[in-house]
Specification:
Layout lengths: L2 H9 L1 H20 L5 H28 L2
Helix pairs in contact: 1-3, 2-3
């Protein structure tokens, strides 16, 4: 698999849908959990946001490498 194709896969709907689904599940979990778990959920949300940014950066980097 070449870099451009991998970059396209990372920007693709499947990856975005998976990240969105994880965000929705965390939000639902936040609503159901007591206060003691809210910090853990916040940490997971931050990790998810960081992952989203890393995927975006990696896809951009792969696109640049392929040029």
């Amino acid at each position: 698999m070449n870099n451009e194709r991998l970059a396209d896969e990372l920007r693709g709907k499947h990856v975005e849908d998976s990240l969105f689904d994880a965000s929705c599940r965390l939000e639902e979990l936040r609503k159901r959990c007591d206060e003691s778990l809210q910090d853990d959920i916040f940490d997971f949300e931050q990790r998810l946001d960081n992952l989203r940014e890393e995927i975006k950066d990696y896809a951009l980097w792969l696109g640049e490498e392929d040029e």
